Amino acid sequence: MSVRDRLAELGIELPKVPAPAGSYLPAVRTGSLVYTSGQVPIVDGEVVATGKVGADISPEFGAELARICALNALAAIDGFIGLDAVTRVVKVVGFVASAEGFTGQPGVINGASDVLAEIFGDAGRHARSAVGVAELPLGVPVEVELIVEVA
Question: CA-to-CA distance for 39 and 55, rounded, in angstroms?
């Protein structure tokens, strides 16, 4: 089954690739790896939420935002090389703008990890970092970047 067929089966529509907010590319390839730039929760050109997880944003909503970030990263890959070229999700790096004392970053980034496993099955299981930070660009609560292997 193609990745497009799997997305349709799951009822997932990839968003348009968000325009870069700076001087960088949404994705680059070196050898058999594609790296995405950090993707934030933007839908239709608008930031979905701002604030810090553990204060302004619940961990559950943070996980939903991480899912959006992962889908934006997939859109960047799709626009660059096509999702059917992806053979494995290698690594997810997730950043969570965290309120003081908040330590649930892994649960928040599960939102990204879970959707990748839904889409790619075992090939979507990956290594991961979930990092708490003081601030993120545009005031968003979550940012996600991917490294994938391609054919």
Answer: 22
Q: Evaluate whether 117 touches 73 at the Cβ level (below 8 Å).
A: no
- Do 131 and 96 contact (CB within 8 A), yes or no? yes
Give the separation between CA 58 and CA 55, rounded to whole angstroms.
7
DSSP H or E segment with residue 130? strand 127-133
* Token output for 139: 């005031």
Domain boundaries, the chain: 3-150
CATH 3.30.1330.40 for the 3-150 domain, yes or no: yes
Nearest Cα residue to 126 out of 82, 94, 85: 94
> Could you read off the pLDDT of 131-141 as tens digits, one per residue?
999 999 999 99
pLDDT tens for residues 18-37? 778 789 999 999 999 999 99
Helix, coil or strand: residue 53: strand
Question: What are the helix (H) ranges across the chain?
Answer: 3-10, 59-80, 105-120
